[in-house]
Design a protein that fits this description.
This protein is 76% helix and 5% strand. It has a 4-stranded mixed sheet with strand order 2-1-4-3. It has 2 domains: 3-168, Helix Hairpins (Orthogonal Bundle); 176-238, no CATH class. Helix 1 runs antiparallel to helix 2 (87-168). The longest helix is centred in the middle third of the chain and has 82 residues, at 87-168. The protein starts with a helix and ends with a strand. With 240 residues, the protein is mainly α. It binds zinc ion. Zinc ion binds next to loops.
Length: 240
Amino acid sequence: MHEWVGKLLAVQEIDVRLDQLREQVESVPAEARRVVEALRAEEAKVTEAKAALQDVEKGIKAIDLEAEGLRTRKADFQKKSAMIKSNEEYRAALMQIEQCDKLIADLEDKQLGVMERLEAARSGVAAANRNLEAARARAEEAKGDLKTRMSNAQSQIDALEAERKPALEGIAPDLLRRYERLRSSPARRHQANQRALVPIREGVCCERCRMNVTAQTRMNARKGMLVSCEHCGTMLYFED
Ligand SMILES: [Zn+2]
């Protein structure tokens, strides 16, 4: 391998690693947001379950009130019926009392159904609370992980940046400029593994775009000349 190739490849490996680490650091805020959103979602479910329970409890209260009203009405009719003289009025009062009994029985049936819903709603609240607790624990753990990941990545970045300076020594400035330009070109930006210098592999193929290069390019690369892929512009070197 020609000397310039080895030197530039060493710099490139540092840069690729730096890209990956910076990407990791940049992804931390989005992940932290996702953790918070997941927690908010569980909190919303608790609120929802509590509202459902309140609805059922309101329903029970309404039934209780209605039953109480009917019992009062029934007692009124019973009181009145004791003072009624005519048979006709008496029968009418009895019918009213029967009607009240029937309505009260209906309400009691209804209440049984509502009690089942009450149980379900209470279980719903308990389950939502348990899920929220679990989500809180997960969020705490995830926050810790993200913090650790961030500081690990940052210290690796610092170390690589320190390594990069000596690695640049002995590389011709125009070669370095060309390399930097290629690495920062829009087509390659934000692509952590994109390399500006790749080998000609499998005979005559540029490793990046997988297109064949000419025999001349291949020969020049073999001689150690700086050549570029005719198709994608990437710098090429010949790999023995
Ligand atoms: Zn190419």
